[in-house]
Amino acid sequence: MYTADAHCDALLKIAQSDSPLVNIDTLKKGGVGLQNFALFAPVESSIYEQQEMIKKEITLFHMCVKQSDNLHSNPFTFIKNDNTYTDAILSLEGAGMLGDNLDMWNDLKNKGVEMASLTWNERNNLAAGSSQPNRYGLTRAGKKVIQWQNNNNIVTDTAHLNEQSFWQVIELADTVVVSHTNTRALLDHPRNITDKQVAALVNKNGFIGLTFYPLFINGTNRADFSDFGRQVEHLCSIGASDIIGLGSDFDGISSTINGLSNPSDYPALINWLLARFDENIVEGLVGENFRKFWNRRRIKR
């Protein structure tokens, strides 16, 4: 079954000379036809160090694509329902190192970035992250960047934003996703989203990627397929079945769902889901919803 993942941190792992869970071999074994690779630089680093890390990860991304026949990247083509290879998307997770420098934003776009979030968990010069009080939201610079994203058909990722920033993005941005999150109805965690936020994303024709991080799923260090299934069941019950998908956060989380250690384990998850949900729901969840969302975005070019 065609599989797509809206978020992983493999590029940071490679940049730090570590072996990523998301790699050519595991993507192929898992039948992954579409993978978003996030550019991320630790926010405790200096602005210069963050900028250099992002440059390094961009170079590594294009090197990986060039060296592998199984990894394709072309922001100007439609994504086919074909998992004999993996279409690779490039995104930016946290943009404090760019601020509202539009020359730098244009440079990232020219290097293939198609989606970006304004901040990580912290408050920066653009927005407030999920660890911040809701009295903080988008800054004037952040609103300027949202307008630039609209003008350049860049998807705005609201993962890691606090609620105040989220609602401002919903009001201002044309194309919105939450690339990796879970539902707050089942676990009240600031990185999870409320049913009201889910409804806003449905109305916006957005996308929600579900993580495999137990701490966001059930608040512990251990979760299994049934815990993940409850996330899916709840979101389907409130009308979100057409906009939910996978947002694994592989290579960015310290633990994952039991039996789902890397992308090669996706067939086991799919088989478990097929035994409990309608096939069309499972097809949408594991890949088709994200693929269709991305093609709707690319048709605007």
UniProtKB/TrEMBL annotation:
Q: Which GO terms describe its biological process?
A: proteolysis
Q: What is the lineage of its organism?
A: Bacteria, Bacillati, Bacillota, Bacilli, Bacillales
The molecule here is called Membrane dipeptidase
Per its UniProt entry, which superkingdom is the organism in? Bacteria
Q: Which GO terms describe its molecular function?
A: metallodipeptidase activity
Gene3D superfamilies listed in its UniProt record: Metal-dependent hydrolases (3.20.20.140)
